Each structure stands twice: as structure tokens, then as C-alpha cells.
Amino acid sequence: MTPIHIVIPVFNRKEHTRECLKSLRAQTDTNYKVTIVDDGSTDGTEEMLKTEFPEVDILKGDGNLFWTAGVNLGLRHALKQGSEVFMTMNNDVVTDEQLIEKMIYWHRQKPEALIGALELDAFTKKPIFGGERLNWKLNKIDQVLEKLPESNRRGLHAVTHLPGRGLLIPKIVFEKIGLFDEDRFPHYIADYDFTHTARRAGFELFVNYDAKLLTYPEESGERQLRSNKSFKNYYKHLFDLKGGGNLRDFTRFTLKNCPPPYIPYHLLNGYTRRLLGYFLK
């Protein structure tokens, strides 16, 4: 098996990038390589990478790539190098030492599936995200983790979509559906759109409960907008490129992915949650 090619887009937050890469160095299975897409960092990220992680490939952006174009730049680089298996990852995660080993194991059982990781809170070490199942008809999302007894929190569990942090993707998926949709979704929701598209194309999606990531939920831009409530941040929540409630992105996502009979209700429900939910959470 060729190495898993891990693509990590970064913009500043040098310390997070360092800790992420240090955790990858501690893997029990080192059959991977890393490409960092540095989109205009100004905090010394590039110098740190060259000095401390010379084995990492570095691609440069001018600050206008954002998540999706950054990931795609790294994926194109990996494809040109002949990689067969890929993983997208955010820099604000710390990998469990068996992440690569457990991903490779389940990839061999399901070689054409997209596989995500179980997420743990980096501070409490408790599981916080184990995948979701979206029911378009009922406009309802079930949290897989909440329905699983602890005795069954292992192996693969089927989901309808996956986040891009720690997402394993076989090459055949790109060959069939292309890369992430950077034109419609430059930052948020591109990962959910990509995995919904892959599922419609016939690929299975799973969360691998044997492969774990430590994450920092409070580090997301959307969490920070919600924690410091103001009308300025409310506007960013709804309209900014990095706003988690971005109405444009939600509309595009719904029109592209939702079955036509359920589009009106899904839009109405989603708009209501975005317009009101900011002040309720």
C-alpha cells in the first residue's frame, strides 16, 4: 500500500500545527507523508516547518485560498506524486498514536469507503463526535455517538456525511466525483458537500471508532463568533465566508444535495435555525 498522503491547510496558529505534526511523528504506523498548505501565515509557520519538520512538503498560498482551495491544492500535489490514499486534516487536532494504523486496517477491509475518525475533547479526553445521519425527509440529524452504548464504540459505523478533519479518501473517489467544490463552498460545508456527493455516487461512509482525534471545539471561528455575541458577529455568522451560519453556503448546499421534494421545508427550517439559533446558544 502506498503511504497515506495527509493534506493539512494552515493559516497561522503555529503552535497547533506543531502539536499536530508531533503527534503524527508518534504514530505506531509511519506509512504516511504530509503536505502542508500554508495560506499566507505571518506568525513564523513556514520557518518552524522548515526547521523542525523538514520531511513535510510545504505549498504556499497568498491568503486567499481558505479551506477548500487550500485542500484542493494539496490534493493535486499528492495526486501528481502518484498517491492512492489521501487524508484531509485540520491543524488544530492531535492524533492518537494508532490513528494511521487503525485507518489503514479498516481501509483494507473497505478499500473504496470514505472513513472519518472518532473525535475526543482534547482536554477531557471524552468522545464528543462520532458521526451523523441526516434524514432529509424528517429534516433531522441523529448523532451516532449518542445512540451507541460504550460497549459498541468500536469499528466502523455508517454515516451520511463526514467532516474534513481526519477524513480518509481513496483515489477512486476523486476519479469519480472530482475534488472539493471550492467554487460553491470556499470554506465551511465543503466537506459535508463532498461526502454527500460521494455517497450519492455509491461510496460508503463510515466513522472509525478505533481511530481517534483530539480536537479543540472552542478554537473554531464559529464558536468564537457565538461566544462573543454582538450584532457585528451576528452579521459575520450569517454572511462572512467563515461564518458557520452562512446563508449563501447553506442555500447552495441544500439546492445541490437535498432531494427536490424536501427542499422548501429544509430551507425554511435551516434559515430559522440560523437566524434565531445564534442568540439561543
From TrEMBL:
Residues 6-116 form the Glycosyltransferase 2-like domain. This is Glycosyltransferase family 2 protein. InterPro entries: Glyco_trans_2-like, Nucleotide-diphossugar_trans. GO terms for molecular function: glycosyltransferase activity. Keywords: Glycosyltransferase, Transferase. It comes from the Bacteria. Pfam families: Glycos_transf_2 (PF00535). Its EC number is 2.4.-.-.
